[in-house]
From TrEMBL:
The keyword Membrane applies. This is GGDEF domain-containing protein. It comes from the Bacteria. Keywords: Membrane, Transmembrane, Transmembrane helix.
């Protein structure tokens, strides 16, 4: 199962995971060369069992992190993305801390490498992740000093390592958190602008552009279009005011949303006109919905102690599957049907008066 994310979030995730794959593969190469005795410390270090064990364990953990990064790179919107990202950070932290602690125990000064684990955690998990990585790496380094004493590190150097890495964790974590908040705010603003560009500000219903995009996605499928025009709406505006008219329009919009099936879409195209696009709809389906909407829209609207009522004229046009009539063509046909209904209603009212 995948989640819908902003494109900028997906791009950022892909960039992070691609970099992670490259850097982790670099780590695999370095550890492999170290185990072969070709780079790094004196070859005699490999005779120390804890060094070789830490290197082999670290290699396995980095390879595990590479697999997680590849999965996340392929599916940056997968539901397990955050879980795999966290597991990768934990695996990286343990691998780096274990290898550094074993080399420190062998008398080599490599503790600055622990900052890599902290920076990686800050990039992915911001300040909480950076502080957690600092806690884990400092704890593992402290255990190495307790077990091996001054051979691993003297207490003064341990204090310098712990405090300097705390500073790195705070600085990198706060910067990553600030960047994360900024990205979140920009994405929220982008979503709001996109919504404003594709929806009616008063009712919250989709506008013509959004309806057109939805109808285009139904190309080749059966589709029905209902065009609705409110009757008596001008009288509401004239007698009760435009604020009351706005309340009526919002109520009509809410009733339209409540009456639709999943996959259908209702929008306001201006004034007191609304359009409903029905996916995979037959003439009978369109007629049944039109009857239901007439009954719903005619129900009184509460206006803080007063009520207002409007009627509605509805025209329908239906496209069979495989036909190529677009939204504009169906809207014109529905508009003509709607005006025929209005004319029939007026004629009926005139004959009974």
């Amino acid at each position: 199962m995948e989640t819908t994310l902003d494109p900028s979030v997906l791009r950022r995730r892909r960039t992070i995971e691609a970099n992670s794959v490259v850097t982790r593969l670099g780590g695999v190469l370095c550890v492999s060369l170290f185990l072969a005795g070709w780079i790094g410390m004196p070859h005699a270090l490999l005779d120390a069992p804890w060094v070789r064990l830490a290197a082999i364990g670290g290699l396995a953990e980095i390879l595990f992190s590479v697999v997680l990064a590849v999965i996340n790179l392929r599916r940056p919107n997968g539901r397990h993305y955050e879980r795999f990202s966290t597991l990768g950070v934990v695996s990286d932290t343990i691998a780096i801390a274990g290898l550094v602690a074993s080399l420190q125990a062998a008398g080599q000064t490599v503790w600055p490498l622990l900052s890599m684990a902290i920076l990686t955690a800050a990039l992915r998990k911001q300040l909480p992740g950076a502080l957690l990585a600092w806690t884990v790496t400092s704890g593992i380094l402290g255990v190495a000093v307790l077990v091996h004493g001054d051979q691993a590190m003297n207490p003064g150097d341990l204090s310098v390592a712990v405090l300097s890495h705390l500073l790195i964790a705070i600085l990198s974590g706060t910067q990553a958190s600030a960047y994360g908040r900024q990205v979140h705010e920009l994405n929220a603003a982008r979503r709001q602008l996109h919504h404003q560009a594709s929806h009616d500000a008063l009712t919250g219903l989709p506008n013509r552009a959004r309806l057109t995009a939805h109808a285009d996605a139904l190309t080749g499928r059966a589709m029905a279009v209902l065009l609705l025009d409110l009757n008596g709406f001008k009288a509401v505006n004239d007698t009760l005011g435009h604020a009351a008219g706005d309340v009526v329009l919002r109520a009509v919009g809410a009733r339209l949303r409540a009456a639709l099936r999943e996959g259908d879409l209702a929008g306001r195209i201006g004034g007191d006109e609304f359009v409903v696009v029905l996916a995979d709809a037959s003439p009978a389906t369109a007629a049944a919905l039109a009857d239901r909407l007439r009954a719903l829209i005619c129900e009184p609207v509460d206006l803080d102690g007063q009520t207002a009522s409007v009627g509605v004229s509805i025209g329908a046009a239906v496209r069979a599957a495989g036909e190529d009539a677009d939204l504009d063509a169906l809207s014109r046909a529905a508009d003509a049907a709607m005006y025929r209904e209005k004319s029939a209603r007026r004629a009926s009212a005139a004959s009974t008066s």
